[in-house]
Amino acid sequence: IRPWTNARALVASANGVVYAGDDGRIEFQIDSSSRMVINLTGQEVFLGALSVLGEEADLNVGIVGFTLLSDLHNGQGVDLSPGTFTITDQNLGIISTIDVSAATDINDVLTIINAQLAADGITNLQATIGLEKNNILLDTTQNGLISNVTALDKLNEGNGVDLHPGEILVTDGGAINATVDFSSAATIGDIITAFNTQIAAQGIANVAMQINAAGTALEIIDSNGVPLGLSIMETSASENTASTLGILGDIDPTLMGRDLDPVVSFKV
Hints:
With 268 residues, this protein is α+β, with helices and mostly antiparallel strands. The chain is 17% helix and 27% strand. The radius of gyration is 35 Å and the shape is elongated. The two termini are 67 Å apart. The chain folds into three domains: 10-46, no CATH class; 69-140, no CATH class; 152-256, no CATH class.
């Protein structure tokens, strides 16, 4: 009832409820030149179109371990034919083939993935239900391992290796001064091959580069009966190739390189 007219604003009729009120607006003065409407009409409140519950909301329930694969994707399920996919550790070159064709629920999928990864030697990747509870998360941890296939741009926490110009100096401070060019290298294996090939070609025998036993860095070993007293240096004060490869220092008779800390790199 509108108090100033004593008339009802909403009146029942043969065709439903009719709004008989006005469209008056009550304004609140904010400052000397601005006002804000602070009311709604009866028509806006009671006769507006209703929205369908949930039409603008995601009401899909999350997944749990016993959620059936056949219930996923709005009941469309998961294509399990052939039901296989691969996960590749791009730092170590390990390819793990996962076969979930026999899985019936989320727990089955997680168990199969994790068991196969472990069997293939991938120990820093774990499949689990994601924090959003609507996906599977492949959770990684840093293990610091490198191999011949590790890309140089993954090293040093993703900062890579300085390959401009990409040269190092192998010297005994006297007669031996050998330059090794890494400018065309893309992987750890390329670095090792370039060093060993170029050193031998320049007449330096029994000196070789390899990955250390821990699998985390490069090392250079002088296996001569009497070590040659070699050192690895930059070719100039402005270069960083040896430093970013972790091999600055003396080969006496082994130069144990710095850990190269590659970023975790997997491909599914």
